[in-house]
Amino acid sequence: MKSGNNWRKAGVLEVGPQSQYKTIQAAVDAAIENSVIKICAGVYFENVDVTKDNLSFSPKGEQDEVIVIALSQPVFCVRIQDKSFCRIEQLKIVQNAYATNVFVF
């Protein structure tokens, strides 16, 4: 871990109606570097602003369908440091006529 003040360990954060985190953004806000965010099946109407390094996003179950629909643009905005990553796997990211799916800088 980078910070001596960061006593939490990276782990799995679950998103869904019956989970600790009701939105993907709430899980991102609670995550620390190297966390994995597992998303329960469903449709999520939100924008996700990723400002933490080395996060992974995927459905909770192998057969779960997760759809993220933009409220505005972009659906996912990823702002991380060089040599860091953001892994987004098996999510359906839907844009409206004015939104960009994923913006990385």
Short structural summary:
With about 100 residues, the protein is mostly beta strands. It has one helix at about 25-30, and strands at about 10-15, 35-40, 40-45, 50, 55-60, 65-70, 75-80, 85-90, 90-95, 100-105.
Task: Give an overview in words.
- With 105 residues, the chain is mostly beta strands.
- The chain has one domain.
- 7% of the residues lie in helices and 34% in strands.
- It has a four-stranded parallel beta sheet with strand order 1-2-5-8, covered by helices on one side.
- Strand 1, helix 1 (24-30) and strand 2 form a beta-alpha-beta unit.
- The longest helix has 7 residues, at 24-30.
- The radius of gyration is 13 Å and the shape is globular.
- The model is unreliable at 1-7 (pLDDT under 50).
Based on the model shown, name its key terms.
105 residues; mainly beta; four-stranded parallel beta sheet; three-stranded parallel beta sheet; 1 helix; 10 strands; 34% strand; globular
Can you list the strand order of the major beta sheet? 1-2-5-8
Overall mean confidence score, pLDDT: 84
Integer-rounded radius of gyration? 13 Å
Classify the beta-strand content into a percent band.
25-35%
What is the count of helical runs? 1
* Residues in helix, %: under 10%
Beta strands, count = 10
The low-confidence runs, each spanning 5 or more residues with pLDDT under 50, are 1-7
- What general outline do the C-alpha atoms trace? globular
> Which secondary-structure class do the elements indicate?
mainly beta
Largest sheet report: 4 strands, parallel
SSE succession:
EHEEEEEEEEE
How many discrete domains? Answer: 1
End-to-end distance, in Å? Answer: 23 Å
